[in-house]
Write a structure and sequence with these properties.
Elements: H1 2-18, H2 51-63, H3 67-87, H4 96-105, H5 110-125, H6 128-137, H7 145-148, H8 153-156, H9 170-182
Helix pairs in contact: 2-3, 2-4, 3-5, 3-9
């Protein structure tokens, strides 16, 4: 019996490996940067820029070896991304922020990653500037289409309440997101 199972498993694996007709489906707006940022100081980011927009600016900073602004943009993008995971109802779309982060950081050399990591760690040691900038920027004004369109709900048309959590407590979610990323204690 075990031998038959092994043969069947081998046939299945071989047929999958030989299948080069794999189609990748994406919905309109999936992880889309609709208002891409430039490499700017965190204070210059706008509340209508989503994490995809901010990661685009971060990539520009990395390409120009501006690790300080890249690290600040990283925290802004992650804070808004975590906030969006709390307000987007389709849990299958929540990994969108992880995909954006991976796409932005892929291709960095070990030295570039180390320089960025040093700046990210330095912000956690002294987070006042980033906390102040995020607090002043405040809650996002964009609709998180970039994330909503990343989930299964974009294909099943199962998006009640425009893809958002019903009776969402934005202030509580914002406090959790900002504390989780940059360790900013909100009052």
């Amino acid at each position: 019996m075990n031998k038959i199972f092994t043969i069947l498993a081998s046939i299945a694996i071989t047929s999958c490996a030989n299948n080069t007709n794999v189609t990748n489906f994406q919905s309109n707006g999936n992880l889309e940067a609709s208002k891409p940022a430039s490499c700017v100081d965190i204070n210059e980011l706008q509340a209508n820029q989503n994490p995809a927009d901010i990661f685009a600016g971060m990539k520009t900073c990395l390409n120009s070896e501006n690790y300080s602004d890249a690290a600040k943009m990283y925290y802004a993008a992650m804070t808004y991304g975590i906030y969006d995971t709390k307000r987007v109802s389709d849990k299958t779309s929540h990994q969108g922020i992880i995909v954006l982060r991976m796409n932005t950081l892929s291709g960095l050399s070990e030295q570039q990653f180390s320089l960025l990591q040093s700046e990210i760690n330095a912000i956690l040691e002294s987070n006042e500037q980033v906390c102040k900038a995020l607090s002043e920027r405040g809650l996002p004004t964009y609709h998180p289409k970039y994330m909503i369109q990343h989930g299964i709900g974009a294909f099943t048309d199962n998006q009640a309440n425009n893809g958002l959590v019903e009776n969402f407590d934005s202030q509580s979610a914002w406090s959790e997101a900002i504390d989780k990323t940059v360790k900013c204690k909100q009052s």
